[in-house]
């Protein structure tokens, strides 16, 4: 069985996912077969494995860092929020049900055996498992039946590294307070503390670290710097949304709908010189982009109503009629049609008019489409004609079926890797395009074709189009992450903690 070590945090977004990924890469570099694990993940960014199962993207990112194929064993439970109080519950990659928070809290003990089985199987296949916790282990109202933080550490017999975020202030109180709120047996499971996202002179911090170690009787195993590492983000706490707000030569605006999912679909554009990728949430921020992207969402109907109420739909329609390229992905694609109906109450129930930009109707069905696909764009006309015959690959996760009408033209011809069937996906009409394929832009040729087409339409020249392989670029980012953690964490001490266990 594998040895296990667990990364927990004092709160959400302290950097647990990144530290876990970095440790995965370090252990891999040191010759071990390593895998990530998170028993329960709550996020709208998900991924479809080769066998058509759904899991959280954070563990996919960590699997990439470990140089292994992602598996739902690494994330047996995924909760995808449908509203502020309820989530779709995905167990071992398949939808189990939709539940309110209160009902799930009563139900979750039934899922513990699934977590234990997944962890045991993963342990049989690896030397080291790096486990990520969720939120904070000191949520005293949630400790009963916990199998996400200290409860998971007990299942795995894993020593815990506790991570605090100094960038948001109060890191000493975070670390000390988290430990003190835990029962005595769980306090003893914390074997090391990490101060994360530090900017400045570490020597100024050292007196506080010495006092913290004395008060907690736990060593500080490192002070990790604030790292500008470009890897995929887990959820809407991402700092990407607060990034570039200035328009570049080619300006792409992504609508930041409330239930945005799989926004990792657009990361590649951030690496292309002369291109700005801006996430916008109101008409004032929208400005006059060269392309508007409406992304995936966990609730198409509700997010379309949100755009309708705050004026973004009207602004997008105005841009579309002026000739601006509008591109919808998954739920965003569904919004572009003429109607969305939900007779079985999969989302909101009932009927809603779409934006009317593509002659198409969508009806929600109870069965979720989950598959990986590959193929090519067909002959595409309009501004994005440069996409014609370009190869594409990605994955589908959606509940609706869209039916095209006479004037809409199909956009891609693809093969379903699960069923092996060939099918057509997506549509375009004039300057409006849409697809169900997540990751549609990830291939370099696709992203370059989009940018070049937008530049040609605008009458400008982009001289340094991306020539890098996106996968190769991510590999370099994982290596940089590992290098920086090696410099700033006491890996000898961490190996001793791993070896000693609990």
UniProtKB/TrEMBL annotation:
Residues 251-445 form the CobB/CobQ-like glutamine amidotransferase domain. Pfam families: CbiA (PF01656), GATase_3 (PF07685). GO terms for biological process: cobalamin biosynthetic process. The keyword ATP-binding does not apply. The active site is at 330 (nucleophile), 438. Keywords: Cobalamin biosynthesis, Glutamine amidotransferase. Pathway: Cofactor biosynthesis; adenosylcobalamin biosynthesis. The keyword Ribonucleoprotein does not apply. Residues 5-226 form the CobQ/CobB/MinD/ParA nucleotide binding domain. It comes from the Bacteria. InterPro entries: Class_I_gatase-like (IPR029062), CobQ/CobB/MinD/ParA_Nub-bd_dom (IPR002586), CobQ_GATase1 (IPR033949), CobQ_N (IPR047045), CobQ_synth (IPR004459), GATase_3 (IPR011698), P-loop_NTPase (IPR027417). GO terms for molecular function: ABC-type vitamin B12 transporter activity; catalytic activity. Catalyzes amidations at positions B, D, E, and G on adenosylcobyrinic A,C-diamide. NH(2) groups are provided by glutamine, and one molecule of ATP is hydrogenolyzed for each amidation. Belongs to the CobB/CobQ family. CobQ subfamily. This is Cobyric acid synthase. It comes from Acetitomaculum ruminis DSM 5522. The lineage of its organism: Bacteria, Bacillati, Bacillota, Clostridia, Lachnospirales.
């Amino acid at each position: 069985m594998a040895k296990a070590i667990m990364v927990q945090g004092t709160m959400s977004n302290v950097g647990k996912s990144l530290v876990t990924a970095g440790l995965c890469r370090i252990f891999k570099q040191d010759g071990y077969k390593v895998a990530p694990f998170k028993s329960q993940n709550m996020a709208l960014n998900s991924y479809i494995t080769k066998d058509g199962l759904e899991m959280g993207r954070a563990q996919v990112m960590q699997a990439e860092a470990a140089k292994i194929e992602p598996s739902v064993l690494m994330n047996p439970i995924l909760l995808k929020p449908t509203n502020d109080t309820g989530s779709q519950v995905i167990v071992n990659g398949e939808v189990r049900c939709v539940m309110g928070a209160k009902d799930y809290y009563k139900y979750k003990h039934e899922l513990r055996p699934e977590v234990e089985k997944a962890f045991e199987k993963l342990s049989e296949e690896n030397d080291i498992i790096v486990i990520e916790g969720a939120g904070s282990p000191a949520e005293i109202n949630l400790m009963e039946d916990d199998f996400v933080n200290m409860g998971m550490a007990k299942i795995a017999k894993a020593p815990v590294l506790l991570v605090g975020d100094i960038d948001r202030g109060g890191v000493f109180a975070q670390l000390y307070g988290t430990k003190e709120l835990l029962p005595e047996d769980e306090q003893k499971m914390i074997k090391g503390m990490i101060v994360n996202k530090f900017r400045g002179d570490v020597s100024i911090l050292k007196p506080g670290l010495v006092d913290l170690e004395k008060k907690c009787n736990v060593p500080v195993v490192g002070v990790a710097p604030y790292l500008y590492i470009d890897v995929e983000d887990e959820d809407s706490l991402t700092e990407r949304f607060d990034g570039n707000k200035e328009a570049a030569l080619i300006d792409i605006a992504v609508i930041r709908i409330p239930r945005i999912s799989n926004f990792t679909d657009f990361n590649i554009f951030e690496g292309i010189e002369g291109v700005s990728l801006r996430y916008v949430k109101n008409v004032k921020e929208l400005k006059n982009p060269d392309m508007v992207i409406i992304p995936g969402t966990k609730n198409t109907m509700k997010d379309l109503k949100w755009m309708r109420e705050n004026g973004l739909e009207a602004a997008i329609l105005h841009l579309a009629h002026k000739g601006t390229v509008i591109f919808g992905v998954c739920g965003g694609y569904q919004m572009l049609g003429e109607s969305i109906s939900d007779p079985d109450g999969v989302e909101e129930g009932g009927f809603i008019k779409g934006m009317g930009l593509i002659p198409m109707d969508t009806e929600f069905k109870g069965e979720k489409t989950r598959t990986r696909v590959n193929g090519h764009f067909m002959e595409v006309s309009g501004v994005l004609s440069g996409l014609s015959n370009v190869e594409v690959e990605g994955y589908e996760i959606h509940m609706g079926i869209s039916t095209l009408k006479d004037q809409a033209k199909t956009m891609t011809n693809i093969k379903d890797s699960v069923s092996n069937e060939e099918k057509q996906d997506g549509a375009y009409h004039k300057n409006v395009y849409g697809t169900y394929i997540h990751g549609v832009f990830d291939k370099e040729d696709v992203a370059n074709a989009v940018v070049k087409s937008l530049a040609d339409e605008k009458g400008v020249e982009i001289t340094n189009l991306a020539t890098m392989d996106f996968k190769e670029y991510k590999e370099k980012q994982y290596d940089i992450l590992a290098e920086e953690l090696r410099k700033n964490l006491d890996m000898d001490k961490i190996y001793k903690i791993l070896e000693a266990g609990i």
